[in-house]
Design brief:
Layout: H1 6-30, H2 40-49, H3 51-65, H4 71-74, H5 76-91, H6 98-124, H7 132-163, H8 166-173, H9 184-192, H10 195-249, H11 255-261, H12 268-280, E1 285-294, E2 297-303, E3 317-318, H13 328-333, E4 340-344, E5 347-357, E6 363-372, H14 373-422, H15 429-440, H16 449-485, H17 496-512, E7 517-524, H18 527-534, H19 536-554, E8 559-561, E9 566-572, H20 579-595, E10 607-613, H21 622-643
Antiparallel strand pairs: 1-2, 1-6, 2-3, 4-5, 5-6, 7-9, 7-10, 8-9
Helix pairs in contact: 1-2, 1-3, 2-3, 2-5, 2-7, 3-5, 3-14, 5-6, 5-14, 6-7, 6-14, 10-12, 10-14, 15-16, 18-19, 19-20
């Protein structure tokens, strides 16, 4: 069993739309119906799938119909207009309810009947209507003829949409897409954000329109020039043949007699009658005459009346037109001259002169034929109208295909990548993983440089995240190592390394004259006795209790362990004013421990304390302040040992 993918199924549905159009057209023609029935498939596919499928169905319907009826190809632009209008209105919700869809009928008919009227006026009437009233009457008749046809087509599409599977419309919207469907959130964001992408789209659309129009204008201009040259050459060939017939009717030996006697000459009227028959054989001939060229002008041998101009009588002399001045030497010599285009006394003409020779090869007169260049201009205008009508639908189709390619292969992929990059969140590992997954879910597959860019974008993002994770772990490790390097392993407070960095900073403040601090030296008493009596575990416990006492008094961030039983507190800013109070509190606490007999020996924290304040202009470094604090602590230790009885 053959399985078809979505693109193949959609293609088959578009082909079905073309077949519906063709069948409708055949039925209308077979039964001589006053409607066309050739846009049912176009309207339905445009409403279902949007611009591109609808335009394709309309365009190829007329292209196929042109194989059997040439006029069909000229109305391709009307079918394309029907598809564009339908897709435009459907995307704005006019096909969602019956009252709304009824509103689309008059607008659609107004536009399509206008295009139809213009095409018929320019192609089938040889020249535009000579008044606005005539054009209006034609347009009104076309509107009423179109109304029933387009109304039935629109209603047919409306009811078909109601019974058609809903998921097929989603599949139609994915036609030409080179990536996975974009989320509603992203789609809404892309409409309001990303100014760069909008400008890129504008530039590409402008370039696409410019190139399309230039190509269309160039093709039309070249086609017209080729056509005009072909028509003129064709007229020259016809005129050469007709002038040869005229030459055969002229007896070169009787030209002077015809000039002198005119209609009274024997056989003159018979020749003139034959010349009239020759002129009547081609409706494009404006003037037919026979002139004898002499120095004083053109002497009329034969001249035929027209509806608007009475012929000159035989023997009459007509002055040379300005356009003939360059060829007078050849005319006087009886030589052939090339076809002449002139716009003089008798209008815009293409003139062919053919010499009439006697038996000795002497030119006795010229047979002249004038074709109206106005008729050629009319033919050219009709030709241009046909070319424009023929290529307009094709140009729109090519433009829409090009626009779809640009949108799906360039704009949308670049736009979505820019959106993902702009909204990439680094807040958490979960957010980063979500953003990488969103980028991967774009699934851009254009098979060109854009896909290469997308692949590089995905790889760079993943590599960046891996680097970010490694950097984060390394940073954590560095922070941990730094923390360990500045932390006392037993008590968990800052160690001597951290104290050294603080004193370096204080020295810098002293040099800048902004220093203000005090140092409290705390030396724990009886640590050796506790270790020797109760063991090192109890000794460590004793040190930790001493550290806790210092931290609770001076603040953990201000206390440093700089030796086995030595702690230092550094106070700055507002804490300096409370230093004496803090020292008094810790000494009082030590006295409480001393008097509390319920405590174990390692719980009775005892320490000697010394305090020194920085003196501006006296102290050159923090170490000098420390030494004064250490000296005071030593004196305090001696005093405490003098009264201690245990």
């Amino acid at each position: 069993m053959i399985r078809l993918d979505s693109a193949q199924k959609i293609t088959l549905i578009c082909i079905a739309g073309i077949i519906i159009n063709i069948i409708g057209s055949v039925i209308a023609k077979y039964f001589s119906l006053p409607i066309f029935l050739d846009t049912y498939g176009t309207v339905f596919i445009a409403a279902l799938g949007g611009y591109v499928p609808g335009i394709a169905v309309g365009f190829f319907t007329n292209l196929f119909g042109a194989l059997f009826n040439e006029s069909q190809m000229y109305f391709g632009c009307v079918s394309v207009a029907v598809a564009i209008i339908t897709a435009f209105l459907c995307q704005r919700g006019y096909y969602e309810s019956f009252p709304k869809v009824l509103m689309t009928i008059p607008f659609t008919v107004l536009v399509t009947s206008f295009f139809g009227t213009v095409i018929e006026e320019f192609i089938y009437l040889s020249m535009p209507s000579d008044s606005i009233i005539k054009f209006w009457i034609h347009y009104r008749n076309c509107f009423f003829n179109e109304f029933t046809d387009k109304a039935l087509a629109i209603l047919f599409a409306f009811f078909m949409l109601k019974i058609f599977p809903a998921d097929w419309k989603k599949k139609f919207l994915l036609v030409g897409k080179m990536q996975a469907p974009v989320s509603e959130e992203m789609r809404n964001a892309l409409k309001t954000e990303s100014k760069f992408i909008r400008s890129l789209r504008t530039k590409m659309i402008f370039n696409l329109i410019t190139v399309t129009l230039l190509v269309a204008v160039a093709i039309t201009a070249i086609s017209y020039m080729i056509y005009r040259e072909s028509v003129i050459n064709d007229r020259i060939r016809i005129a050469d043949g007709i002038s040869s017939m005229v030459v055969n009717e002229i007896n070169p030996y009787r030209v002077d007699e015809f000039l002198e006697k005119g209609h009274h000459a024997e056989g003159y009227n018979e020749v003139e009658r034959h010349l009239r028959q020759i002129r009547a054989s081609n409706s494009d001939i404006k003037f037919l005459y026979v002139y004898k060229i002499m120095e004083d002008g053109c002497h009329v041998v034969f001249d035929l009346d027209t509806a608007n101009l009475k012929a000159s009588p035989p023997g009459d002399v007509i002055e040379f037109d300005e356009s003939f001045r360059p060829y007078l030497p050849d005319l006087f010599a009886g030589r052939p001259i090339p076809p002449i285009q002139s716009d003089d006394t008798y209008g815009h003409l293409l003139t062919i002169y053919k010499p009439v020779y006697n038996s000795v090869g002497k030119c006795v007169c010229y047979a002249g034929i004038d074709f109206s260049m106005d008729l050629i201009a009319d033919y050219g205008r009709t030709f241009i109208a046909k070319v424009i009508a023929l290529f307009l639908g094709a140009v729109v189709f090519i433009f829409v295909i090009g626009l779809m390619f640009v949108e799906n292969n360039i704009i949308l992929p670049v736009n979505t990548m820019a959106y993902c990059a702009k909204n990439f969140a680094y807040d958490s590992e979960e957010a980063r993983e979500h953003n990488i997954e969103r980028i991967k879910n774009l699934e851009i597959k254009t098979n060109d440089e854009i896909e290469n860019l997308y692949s590089a974008f995905v790889k760079t993002t993943e590599d960046s995240m891996h680097y970010f994770e490694k950097f984060k772990r390394a940073k954590i490790q560095v922070a941990v190592m730094d923390e360990l390097a500045h932390t006392d392993s037993l008590t968990g407070i800052k160690n001597k390394t951290a104290y050294t960095e603080v004193t370096a900073r204080l020295d810098a403040d002293i040099n800048e004259g902004v220093a203000d601090f005090c140092i409290i030296m705390i030396d724990v008493n009886y640590l050796k006795k506790v270790n020797d009596t109760y063991g090192h575990e109890r000794g460590n416990e004793y040190l930790i209790n001493a550290c806790d006492l210092a931290c609770s008094t001076f603040g953990t961030g201000n206390v440093y362990r700089i030796g086995g039983d030595e702690f230092v507190a550094v106070l700055e800013g507002e804490n300096i004013a409370h230093c004496k109070e803090m020292v008094a509190n810790i000494r009082a606490k030590i006295e409480e421990y001393k008097a509390d007999n319920s405590l174990e020996a390692w719980e009775k924290v005892s320490a000697a304390i010394g305090v020194a304040y920085y003196q501006a202009g006296v102290d050159k470094s923090a170490d000098e302040v420390f030494k004064r604090a250490d000296a005071e602590m030593y004196q305090n230790k001696l005093a405490m040992k003098a009264v201690r009885k245990d």
